[in-house]
Amino acid sequence: AQSVTQLGSHVSVSEGALVLLRCNYSSSVPPYLFWYVQYPNQGLQLLLKYTSAATLVKGINGFEAEFKKSETSFHLTKPSAHMSDAAEYFCAVSVSGGSYIPTFGRGTSLIVHP
Amino acid sequence: GAGVSQSPSNKVTEKGKDVELRCDPISGHTALYWYRQSLGQGLEFLIYFQGNSAPDKSGLPSDRFSAERTGGSVSTLTIQRTQQEDSAVYLCASSKDRGRNTGELFFGEGSRLTVL
């Protein structure tokens, strides 16, 4: 079975600083990986996804993530944080053996200080 | 509508009562998912529909939980004899045909259930 671990339930950065949210996955078959963002009182929306094409994936709002098979990681980064980036971020994995039903991490709350 | 619609957005009920939560997926999306989001627990998978069938209901926590989908569209999640531990946000998501979709989901805003 596949699983996802997000390191750090809360990450705090200053506006303009680098954002790094960590995600490690476990899967016995090639995974599909996703980052979703949830703003307060809203549903989740897709930020970006890796589906076995380019290992560096660019998403919306300036976010990107790199798939590193050797490290089983899919960390999310953004060069310069903006106040509007404050939200909950979820990493997810799906595999063909799991009927492509995504398994989500526990989420990381990003706090951006002025 | 253009997105996934869930109702009610908020539900407060007394312990022991039954509740029904409704999900209206994006038109044409054949796959539908229910997840439960509890504080600090992330998203917990409950059940997955492909059309009107539920090939995976492994996440339903107990026999008090059931779900159905009719007409390949609207789904209802029913919780009988609610308990305080059922308090959570129940999220519905839909997607295009699973085989081509590779797990990209479109979520509703959720139904927040509070059991007193």
Structure description:
The complex is a heterodimer of chains A (114) and B (116). Chain A has 114 residues and is an all-beta fold. Helix content of chain A is 0%, strand content 54%. In chain A, the strands form two sheets. In chain A, strands 2, 4, 5, 9, 10 and 11 form a six-stranded mixed beta sheet that branches. A five-stranded antiparallel beta sheet of chain A has the order 1-3-8-7-6, with no helix packed on it. In chain B, strands 2, 4, 5, 6, 9, 10 and 11 form a seven-stranded mixed beta sheet that branches. A four-stranded antiparallel beta sheet of chain B has the order 1-3-8-7, with no helix packed on it. Chain B starts with a strand and ends with a strand. The model of chain B has no long low-confidence stretch (mean pLDDT 92). Chains A and B meet through strand 4, strand 5, strand 9 and strand 10 of A and strand 5, helix 1 and strand 10 of B.
Short structural summary:
The complex is a heterodimer of chains A (114) and B (116). Chain A is an all-beta fold. In chain A, 0% of the residues lie in helices and 54% in strands.
Interface with most residues: A-B, 24 and 25 residues
User: Which structural category do the helix and sheet elements of chain A fall into?
Assistant: mainly beta
Mean model confidence by pLDDT of chain B: 92
What average pLDDT do the residues of chain A reach?
Answer: 92
CA gyration radius of chain B, whole angstroms: 13 Å
**SSE order of chain B, as H and E?**
EEEEEEEEEHEE
Strand content of chain A: over 45%
Report the sheet with the most strands of chain A, covering strand number, pairing sense and barrel closure.
Answer: 6 strands, mixed
Distance between the termini of chain A: 41 Å
What profile does the largest beta sheet of chain B have? 7 strands, mixed
> Would you identify the regions of chain B where 5 or more consecutive residues have pLDDT less than 50?
none
State the helicity of chain A in percent bands: under 10%
What is the subunit organization of this protein?
heterodimer
| Strand count of chain A | 11
Principal-axis shape of chain B? globular
Query: Which shape of chain A, going by the Cα principal axes?
Result: globular
User: Roughly what fraction of the amino acids of chain B lie in strands?
Assistant: over 45%
Specify the helix fraction band of chain B.
under 10%
Number of alpha- plus pi-helical segments of chain A: 0
Structural class of chain B: mainly beta
